[in-house]
UniProtKB/TrEMBL annotation:
Species annotation: Chitinophaga flava
Protein name, entry field: GNAT family N-acetyltransferase
Annotated ranges, domain N-acetyltransferase: 11-167
Gene3D superfamilies in the cross-refs: 3.40.630.30
Pfam family membership, one: Acetyltransf_3
Alphabetical list of InterPro entries matching this protein: Acyl_CoA_acyltransferase, GNAT_dom, N-acetyltransferase
GO MF annotations in UniProt: protein-N-terminal-alanine acetyltransferase activity
Gene Ontology cellular component annotations, sorted alphabetically: cytoplasm
Key words, A-Z: Transferase
Length: 185
């Protein structure tokens, strides 16, 4: 089964393929992109190939979905977004997202995550969407706040990243709280 293409006014979210290798390397080799993520900045193009395989296997195992973010009418990958840790027993998923710095602050991820929320709540019957955010990643926290997520608390030493334990702010949005109109207004 092919990953569905999701469209918004400005964006097209499409499957990630081998043709995105160079764009993914450019994205994930930027330290400002990977700073608060659980991966080190890429230094070798083979890491981009490996992450494509990882995203595809996740989808094949039905554990997650990851899309390439493109501007409508332009096929170039400018970021990625999606979810992993898809737990069908408990109807929940965990969000992940990243964007090239040149596109930050233009509302692109609000729009991309907005359409993913619509897809997972309305088509996949997900009940709970979670996100773990580094306490100093203001852009990510504001993004989630704007989309209606609630802050549940801070998890101490939640992840071991880049050689040290880091705390994580836990956010969630439930299906019964999800307001499609409020996101798209
Ligand atoms: C987090 C990220 C995806 C946000 O994407 P974006 O397209 O710039 O976000 P939007 O333009 O839709 O803005 C969402 C909110 O974040 C705020 N924001 C965006 N960039 C910001 C920045 N550099 N500093 C502070 N706030 C910022 C916006 O003002 C907006 O909040 P508001 O509505 O309260 O004003 C982007 O900064 C990024 O790729 N960061 C690196 C990867 C990363 O940290 N991923 C998340 C891991 S949990």
């Amino acid at each position: 089964m092919q990953l569905p293409v999701l469209s918004t006014e400005q964006l097209e979210l499409r499957p990630i393929t081998e043709k995105d290798t160079a764009a993914l390397f450019s994205l994930f080799s930027k330290e400002e992109v990977t700073r608060y993520m659980d991966i080190d900045a890429f230094t070798n193009i083979t890491e981009a190939t490996q992450i494509i395989t990882y995203f595809r296997e996740n989808w094949e195992k039905q554990e997650g979905m990851r899309w390439a973010i493109t501007l409508k009418g332009q096929d170039e990958l400018i970021g990625t977004c999606g979810f992993h840790h898809w737990n069908k027993t408990h109807y929940k998923i965990e969000l992940g997202y990243d964007l090239l710095p040149a596109y930050w602050g233009k509302g692109i991820m609000t729009e991309a995550i907005g359409i993913i929320l619509q897809f997972v709540f309305e088509d996949l019957q997900v009940n709970r969407v979670e996100a773990f955010v580094d306490p100093v990643n203001t852009a990510s926290s504001r993004l989630l706040g704007r989309l209606g997520f609630q802050h549940e608390g801070m998890l101490r030493d939640a992840f071991f990243e880049k050689g040290k334990f880091v705390d994580a702010e836990l956010y969630s949005l439930l299906r019964r709280e999800y307001n499609r109109e409020a996101i798209w207004q």
